[in-house]
Amino acid sequence: MKHKAVILGNNYYIGLSTIRSLGIHGVHTVAVDYSEEDRYGAASKYCAESILVPHYKEETEGFIHALIDYAKKQDEKPVLIPCHDTYLEVLDAHLNTIKEYYLIPQTEQGLATKVMNKDHLYALAEEHGVRAPETVRIHEPNFKERVLEEIKFPCIVKPVDSPAFVSTFRKKIFMVHTMEELDEALEKAKAANLEVFVQRIIPGFDDHMYTFDAYLDQNSKVTHWTTCQKLRQYPINFGASVYTIQKYTPDLYEIGAKFLEGIGYKGFAEIEFKKDEQTGEFYLIEINARITNFNHLLYKVGLNFPYITYREMIGDPLEPKALTETTNRAFWYGYEDMLAVKDYIKSGQLKPSAVVKSLFRPKAYAIWSLQDPKPALSFMKTRVGKLFGGRRKARR
Question: Is 1 within 8 Å of 28 (Cβ atoms)?
């Protein structure tokens, strides 16, 4: 195939899964990163080319120029696929320039950032009649009274800009139980110059988290989709998926497809919902506007979203497909799931027997592949190095 696929962010298993999803179909994949550190995705046998560019945040202008210079040297426009939120934010800010040199599904500059920004997302949800958790902004009148009366404790302090918050605090939210804890959380956010708001916790264990995973074509119509259910995440309760199953939930299509089509979205998107255990209603929590963590699970059940993206971008789209049955296959990121299980059991949220029982499903692994073992070996080498390196420092 003449068009190369340029994958941004290969120091995480989303990039690795994307490389595999494309390379297995003979696509020339190009791993693009700013550092060789922990770059295990580029170790895949499906990675045809590997380059380094300036840091996307620290040297944004140099990063954009490097991407453009690379594209200019190609016979055909490459397909560009960011695999991390921060890469996506930078590309979205320069979309009108970048799309002259790359094939990218999204055509409206700023839309990806808008759906990643919680303030804008919840405004869009309200506009399109989609439920979202009750929220109070810190500058609204009677802020503390509204928290006590409408939100109630415990509640969460959530960022407007999730990537920046996670980069600063290494967590998605602050959970607070008292007004004193709320004040402390707000001070931390203020000191970091990050905008936050307070939100009600939708009742239900982590297995009440669901996703609608879909691809929308250049007419903003859903062409491929399925639904999944999270069973465990890390950090527990408010983290990323570490054990998720594909499960058909038709209500999510009715809500999700209508919403994404209504806002004129194009390309892959994953809407995260939480099902209220008391009412059964689904609440929109967030949108991932890049390839999802459990992309390999979606590939295994027959929805190869990176390849779906690639084929539409080169003008040869695949036939529409919806997975309207439950396969029960699971995505498993064993490294972090072990950490999650420890915390679930310690906090009394899960019993060991339930964890063991859950593992007897056909799995899609985050990193390990018998046909492509080098990335897993590279990953483990780095982790072992960090472990023993940390111990040596501690002894000194």
Answer: yes
Token reading at 149: 């009366």
Query: Can you give the pTM of this predicted structure?
Result: 0.93
- The band of 390, judged by pLDDT with boundaries at 50, 70 and 90, is low
Q: Are strands 209-216 and 155-159 parallel, antiparallel or unpaired?
A: unpaired
Measured distance CA(115)–CA(125) in Å, rounded: 10
CB 287 within 8 A of CB 263: no
Tell me what pLDDT residue 393 has: 45
pLDDT score of 357 more than 90: yes
Please return the burial class of 83, using the count of CB atoms within 10 Å of its CB with bins 0-12, 13-18 and 19+: buried
Q: Record the tokens describing residue 361, joined without a space.
A: 């499903």
In angstroms, what CA-CA distances link 13 with 70, 307, 343? 24, 17, 23
Q: Cα separations (Å) of 255 from 125, 262, 265, 353?
A: 10, 11, 14, 35
d(C-alpha 157, C-alpha 199), whole Å: 6
Taking Cα atoms as reference points, which of 253, 172, 244, 241 lies closest to residue 213?
253
Specify the long-range contacts of residues 60-69, CB closer than 8 Å, at least 24 apart. Answer: 60/90, 63/34, 63/90, 64/90, 64/94, 64/97, 64/98, 67/6, 67/32, 67/98, 67/101, 67/102, 68/97, 68/98, 68/101
d(CA 180, CA 67): 47
Whole-number percent of the chain with pLDDT over 90: 92
- CB-count exposure of residue 213 (10 Å: 0-12, 13-18, 19+): buried
**CA 255 – CA 251 distance, rounded (Å):** 6
d(CA 260, CA 296): 23
396 has pLDDT over 60: no
Q: If you search the block for the tokens 């001070």, which residue do you land on?
A: 187
Walk me through the domains of the chain, giving residue ranges and CATH numbers: 5-104 (3.40.50.720), 134-200 (3.30.1490), 206-365 (3.30.470.20)
Q: Give me the residues paired with residue 123 across strands.
A: none
